[in-house]
Each structure stands twice: as C-alpha cells, then as structure tokens.
Write a structure and sequence with these properties.
The chain is α+β, with helices and mostly antiparallel strands. It has one helix at residues 96-114, and strands at residues 13-14, 21-25, 28-30, 32-36, 39-45, 56-63, 66-79, 84-91. Strand 2 and strand 3 (28-30) form a beta hairpin.
C-alpha cells in the first residue's frame, strides 16, 4: 500500500486510564484507548482476535452518566505488542444528540490536555 493512499478522517483523543469512558462489545468490557465523535479505539488481547476488519458489532458506550447502544464497524486491527492489538471501530448509527454529548466530553478532554499550569 502506498503511504499516500492512507487517509485518516478522524483523530482520537486519548482516554486511556479514564474512568469516565467505558465500552462493552457483546456485553464484554474492553479497555478504551481513544475516542472521537466518529469512533473508538480499544485494546484487544490475542484471545480477542476473533474479530476481523469489516465486522459490525453491537457496543454499549458509556461516557460519564450517558449510556448509548451503538453499532460499531471494525476498521483496523493494529499490533501494539506481541500479544495485544489496537482495534479501531467506526460508529455506524450515532444520532446527533449523542454525537453532541461526545463532542462536549472531548472538548473538556482537550481543554485539560492543553490547559496552562
């Protein structure tokens, strides 16, 4: 693949270690690595690699007190280490109200990242 063909439409904000964001896929919790209004990045172990690019999976996204049932499509699976992977998923059915709440949360995260000390 030519590097000029690689195009990223969204950049995720790192929420690794944040208690404010969680996700369950098929009722199984996964560690959230990054989030944006278009999708989510989660950590998978080698045991979780039963998914493949293109799979559409039900997920439950929780941000603070908001819980939303969504459909996610696996867009990439990238090795992070010998036995762990980053799985990027695109949200397929997020409504505008939920998207606005996610954007509000992400803006707070950005402010915390770039605030002066």
């Amino acid at each position: 693949m030519d590097l000029h063909e690689i195009k990223r439409n969204y950049f995720r904000i790192s929420v690794k270690g944040s208690d404010a964001v969680s996700v369950k896929i098929n009722n199984i919790p996964y560690e959230v690595i990054g989030l944006n209004d278009g999708g989510i990045g989660i950590r998978l172990s080698s045991e979780d690699i039963l998914v493949s690019v293109g799979d559409e999976l039900p997920l439950e996204l929780t941000i603070k007190d908001m819980v939303q049932s969504l459909l996610g499509k696996v867009v990439h699976i990238t090795p992070l280490g010998p036995k762990e992977f980053l799985c990027g998923m695109e949200f397929l059915n997020m409504d505008n109200k939920t998207k606005a709440k996610v954007m509000e949360f992400l803006e707070l995260c950005r402010e915390n990242i770039f605030k002066e000390e």
